[in-house]
Amino acid sequence: MIRALILLAVLLPVGSLQAQDSLAPQASRIPRLTLKTNVTTLLNTAKTSAMLTADLRLAPRWSVDIGAGSFLFSSFFADDPGEHYYGLRARAGMKYFFSLRPEASWYAGFEAKYNDIQHAYWERLLRQGGQFEQVFLVDRSVKSTGAALRIGAQFYFNADRRLLLDVYTGIGFMANHVAESNRPPDAEPITRGLFSADDFMYLNGRHTIADYLLGMHIGYSFW
After folding, report:
1. What sign for the dihedral angle of Cα 19, 56, 165, 102?
2. CA 70 to chain centroid
3. Exposed (0-12), middle (13-18) or buried (19+): which is 140, by Cβ within 10 Å?
4. Residues 25-50, buried b or exposed e (16+ Cβ, 10 A)?
5. How far apart are CA 172 and CA 21, in angstroms?
6. Comparing C-alpha atoms, which of 127, 57, 68, 59 is closest to residue 92?
7. Bridge partners (DSSP) listed for residue 163
8. Would you call 57 helix, strand, or coil by DSSP?
9. Distance between CA 6 and CA 215 in Å, rounded?
């Protein structure tokens, strides 16, 4: 993962040296303000969320983006009656556009993130040393912070270039703090088969994992 981060990091100075394009005046700058929404998070049934992001131009090739939204539900982690999956998500980052053309602008930069999720799900537990089995509603709080390097492109549509499609990918890390507030002290989880929801949930406690970005925004630009 470290090698991939270094590779993405060098794109900034390399792109600056290689991006001496001969540009028309209307294509020499990115939009002053863009509002966009992440289509991939809306279509993600495992963690469905809605988010609105604003891109603000700081210089002809630099912009800052800030976004906020919420997790709405999960058809994978909270699909049964009584279960829930919701919470806050926030993003902020910087982008450097190393290639500016009328039809597309390519960029590299970084992103920081924060998630605060409340999750409740039914779990089969063994109690009192395995004397009986209980189906128990476990309450979880999942707080995550992370950062990632990213690379992507903004593709412009129609004559005034106001409608755009922003696609990106990247790699970074995410630190998770998972706390279960009501699990009985004598409870023992019952091992399930492969590829259940339990196999993909973050473990209780604190841990850091690799984070991979892949997304697509649809936006509208204000000049």
Report:
1. negative
2. 11
3. buried
4. eebebbbeebebbbeebeebeebbbe
5. 30
6. 68
7. 157, 220
8. strand
9. 21
Q: Can you give the pLDDT of all 223 residues of the chain as single tens digits?
A: 444 443 444 444 434 434 434 444 455 678 999 999 999 999 998 999 999 999 999 999 999 999 999 999 999 999 999 999 999 999 999 999 999 998 999 999 999 999 999 999 998 888 888 788 889 999 999 999 999 999 999 999 987 889 999 999 999 999 999 999 888 888 887 766 556 677 788 888 999 999 999 999 999 998 7
Q: Residue 16: in which H helix or E strand, if any? A: helix 11-18
Quote the CA–CA distance of 176 and 202 in Å, as a whole number.
Answer: 8
How many whole angstroms separate alpha carbon 172 and alpha carbon 50? 22
Q: Architecture of domain 2-117+141-177+203-222 in CATH?
A: Beta Barrel (2.40)
Please name the residue that has the structure tokens 């999956």. Answer: 85
Which has the closest alpha carbon to 62: 94, 93, 34?
94
**Is-above-0.85 flag for pTM?**
no
Residue 201 and residue 112: Cα distance in Å, rounded? 22
Angstrom distance (rounded) from CA 137 to CA 111: 35
Q: Are 151 and 170 in contact (CB under 8 A)?
A: yes
- For the record, the structure tokens of 222 come out as 């204000």
